[in-house]
Amino acid sequence: MATEAAPMDEKAKRMRDLLSSFYAPDPSISTSNSSINASFDNINSTSFDADQYMDLMIKKSNLEVLLQRHVQMAAEIKNLDTDLQMLVYENYNKFISATDTIKRMKSNIFGMEGNMDQLLQKIMSVQSRSDGVNTSLFEKREHIEKLHRTRNLLRKVQQFIYDLPARLQKCIKSEAYGDAVRFYTGAMPILKVYGDTSFQDCRRASEEAIEIIIKNLQTKLFSDSESIQARAEAAVLLKQLDVPVDSLKAKLLEKLEQSLDGLQIKPEEASKLVEHDDSSNDTESNDQHLAKIHEDAVRGFSEAMRAYREIFPDSEERLFKLARALTAMHFENMELYIRKRVSAADFLGIFRIIWEDVVLMDEVLPEAALSDLSAEAAQVTLSQFVARTFSHLQQDISDTLLKFDINQKEAVEGEILKVILEASQKAVLQGTTNIFQDFRQLLDENAGIFIKMRDLINSWIQKGFQDFFRSLEAQFLVLSGKTSSSNDIEGKSSDKIHAGLILVLAQLSVFIEQKVIPRVTEEIAASFSGGNSQAFENGPAFIPGELCRVFHAASEKLLQHYIDTRTQKVSVLLRKRFKTPNWVKHKEPREVHMYVDMFLHELEEVGKEVKQVLPQGTFRKHKRTDSNGSNTTTSSRSNTLHSDKMTRSNSQRARSQLFETHLAKLFKQKVEIFTKVEFTQESVVTTTVKLCLKSLQEYVRLQTFNRSGFQQIQLDIQFLKAPLKETVEDEAAIDFLLDEVIVAASERCLDVIPLEPPILDKLIQAKLAKSKEHNNNNNNNNTVSS
Question: How far apart are CA 715 and CA 698, in angstroms?
Answer without folding.
Answer: 18
